Amino acid sequence: MTLTQSSDAEALAGAMLPRTGERQRGIDRAIGVLELLLQRRQPLSAGEIARALKAPRSTIYEIVNRLIEAGMLEPAGAEGQVFFGRTMHLFGSAYLNSDSGLRRFGEALDSLSAATGATVQCCTRRNNKYVVLDCRDGTGAFRITSEVGAEVPLPWTASGRALLGHLSDEAILTLIPPADFRLPNGGLLSPNQFLSDVAQARQNGFFEATGLASSYTWCQAVPVFGRNGIAAFTLCFVLPIDSAVEQRERCLALLIEKARQLSHATAG
Amino acid sequence: MTLTQSSDAEALAGAMLPRTGERQRGIDRAIGVLELLLQRRQPLSAGEIARALKAPRSTIYEIVNRLIEAGMLEPAGAEGQVFFGRTMHLFGSAYLNSDSGLRRFGEALDSLSAATGATVQCCTRRNNKYVVLDCRDGTGAFRITSEVGAEVPLPWTASGRALLGHLSDEAILTLIPPADFRLPNGGLLSPNQFLSDVAQARQNGFFEATGLASSYTWCQAVPVFGRNGIAAFTLCFVLPIDSAVEQRERCLALLIEKARQLSHATAG
DNA sequence: GCATCTTGTCCGGAATATCGGACTGTCGTA
DNA sequence: TACGACAGTCCGATATTCCGGACAAGATGC
């Protein structure tokens, strides 16, 4: 994993792909295509994909056409561009409905959303980033929404603190790219501050933050522990910054309660 | 597409896979594995998958492990069994959030569900079966739920009538396997009755049915037409059989209105 | 008009992924 | 105990997939 020049191909290689530069198997190319589309979150043409992946054009055309045939990709957007297809949704739904996985979280989100009307999410760590796995959008005037599957730097989120409690300071700094400490508002977060946040989250069993990803939100995150005692997921509320203190406290209490119920009951 | 002996491998071959019996590419094997899991809707072991697909065991182990590594499959169930993984859900969510595809349908379902409290679905034809693409479960005492992605014989459903209006009688009888005329209650539906149902749905612009898939439900289906004038989707209500007539009529009117709004505005 | 960059397709060659089969252990069961 | 079925791993050979490169046709820019 070199740190010379950054590129999509290398970023994905670090995340998923085994070897790079060499001749690759079709299945590896296919996974690369899908991961790229997930990261970019918009239709891409075969040529763009090949360039981003540093893969042969002819190969990508072949793979993309096969995936379209299977319904996992679909023509989308202007000309020759593709994005995820209908079959992918069916696969994803089958996962959600399966016993293990997110089923219990979906019910928890429903209940939390119904009880508060606020935006509530289930999040996890993936490729050393933070991702929203599932969410229920709030009903208020300021409708705070979040995108499932988009990877966000861990230091930008309250959940980022709650997800790293089992790691040493050194391990944490190793897995977070330095660039991720640059917040979206341009400010730089000190790594030491972040480490102290993580320690605080570990001690309290939750973390509250504001002004991180957005200055209009107040975020609460509570870890959900797997059987191995590691925080595999978080449950979080995303509240408007001007929420009443009582409302905040009520939400946090509900969150802690639900997270406790889910802990250990889920795969780690 | 032979009609000699039925097997999973052949059923899937007819649906998705190009050639069978020969050496196959990894990507084709992978797609076969995913389609099989979607069809079975439960965790399977590598051995079971290999047997069902008539594929070499060593190859399936290899493919399954690669898919697990990518998060598209996950260990699930007792021992060595696998099912869809977290990454699949992220891919599927990206599809749902994309402009084309089901986004507009999701909003329509929300609105219909909110207005009536009934179970409402968006359905389509896939592999010459009926599948639910997305749904909102009703709120009533008799909570009627439906499983997204499960393939059901077209003659079992009201939507099955509404989806075939653009086809000739002959074409319809060709694409429906004879076994699909056997209803879940054991009764046999006459093909001619089905053809006349389809004609009726074409004329009325909707179809209502009861006692088909279940004797406790009253189903309403309205086609949604793509740019090519073909019914690409249906919107349907699944009501308890004892719903008041006024409620039924109100639901049907809402359904027709929404389907009209969605027609042509969506990819065919 | 010419140069440059695309997209999409096609083709032959060679690196290698798929396959069949062997092997070990484990579990029931007769 | 012997037997059969199954999970999981490993390995060598060869049929084939992936790759690089060429090509036509269209866009774009100067």
From TrEMBL, chains A, B:
Key words, A-Z: DNA-binding, Transcription, Transcription regulation
Gene Ontology molecular function: DNA binding; DNA-binding transcription factor activity
Source organism superkingdom: Bacteria
CDD domains to which the protein is assigned, alphabetical: HTH_ARSR (cd00090)
Domain IclR-ED positions: 87-268
SMART domains: HTH_ICLR
GO biological process: negative regulation of DNA-templated transcription
InterPro entries according to UniProt: ArsR-like_HTH, GAF-like_dom_sf, HTH_MetabolicPath_Reg, Tscrpt_reg_IclR_C, Tscrpt_reg_IclR_N, WH-like_DNA-bd_sf, WH_DNA-bd_sf
Domain HTH iclR-type span(s) in chain numbering: 24-86
Protein name: IclR family transcriptional regulator
Naturally occurring in which organism (per UniProt): Lichenifustis flavocetrariae
